[in-house]
Specification:
binds flavin-adenine dinucleotide, nine-stranded mixed beta sheet, alpha+beta
Length: 387
Amino acid sequence: MASKHYDLIIIGGGPVGMSLSLALRNSGLSVLLLEARGAPEKKEDPRPLAFSHGSRLILQRLGVWESLPKISLITAIHISNRGGFGRTVLTACEVGVPALGYVVAHHDVFRAMHERLQDCRIDYLTEAQVIRLESDVTEGRGEFRHNGVIKQVTANLLVLADGGRLTGQVEGITQHVHDYEQWAIVARIETSLPQCGTAYERFTSDGPVAFLPLDKYFSLVWSVSPSAAQEILSLDDVTFLARLHHQFGDRLGKFIGASKRSGFPLALKYAEPTTACRVALIGNAAQTLHPVAGQGFNLGLRDAWELSGEIIIMPSEVGSPTMLSKYRDKRQTDSGAGRIFTDSLVKLFSNDDILLRGVCGIGLSALDCLPSAKRFVAKRMMFGSRG
Ligand SMILES: Cc1cc2nc3c(=O)[nH]c(=O)nc-3n(C[C@H](O)[C@H](O)[C@H](O)COP(=O)(O)OP(=O)(O)OC[C@H]3O[C@@H](n4cnc5c(N)ncnc54)[C@H](O)[C@@H]3O)c2cc1C
């Protein structure tokens, strides 16, 4: 049976794969988006997503921003070092923007993108798992299972937005993996003091603890060792909240309620290079980062946006070596900087070395006294390496 041919096949309908599909909705190209899971399974992802101001601009262009039901503004970021001195506060006023970032529930982003895709001329299949792929200079080929039937498709370009699960099948790409030996515990936390738009990042020797303002609550991302994660996930709510309070301190008053907890193992993964013959990697497939600075999706969204730009400028060149090398070169600095930034934060701050923690404390205090350095850091967090 002849396989259907597309200009582009996007493998993985997570937030980054869906963003690329939406960016190409008016391109006139034939696009197939394949997502392994069923739509309802993805509607309950407990993770928060902190968006930068730059990501907001992209999501507005994708027609997604207006459909997000609850968007909480981050007007200040409070960064501190547990058991040591040094802290800094970045504010939106100092940078001259309405907000340093925005927090949205992952499942709200999924729902908004999923619904937006229904109105687009994109072939979008859920419960469609790609099981095999290969490519050569002429085309990319994929095999997927859908409704119990195995189907074959070909395209000028295969885009891997699958979080890196299929990278091993792509010839010429190496995936580097560094296990942080940390898990992120995620939950919604109710505090006695109201959230007023401040996000908190507290570095501890076990890993960072982040509180992101979301609706009337805080969304917690607490990094701990794998064994502590198993224990924390099994605690009753009262004991869990007491332990969290002990770790974070009194800054938010009492912790009075918690939603169901979930755990995510954390590793740094990145692909080198991020393109191969008729293949491009975007989002977590290209780089999976520690959530410490909320950079992962922001970076992935920029991958999708820049790739769509290259495709739209040269529609007849989709998947050609020239187009792929332009995409790869454009993303190299931003991706590398995001990786080094988050990896250094985790390694510098998550340790017991008193000297190193002292140096980090001095760094935070120095940053607090230097408005131009604060603006530099804030702009990189909002717009990536190009600031
Ligand atoms: C605890 C935590 C908190 C985070 N907080 C933030 C934050 O505040 N800000 C931020 O920017 N980032 C954050 N991130 C990172 C962010 O969640 C990821 O960067 C983002 O989800 C990546 O999206 P993606 O679409 O590239 O990959 P994924 O979300 O992994 O999606 C990949 C999709 O591909 C599908 N798939 C896999 N294999 C196949 C296959 N064989 N066939 C078809 N489909 C397949 C999967 O079902 C999945 O839907 C956080 C991450 C964690 C763990």
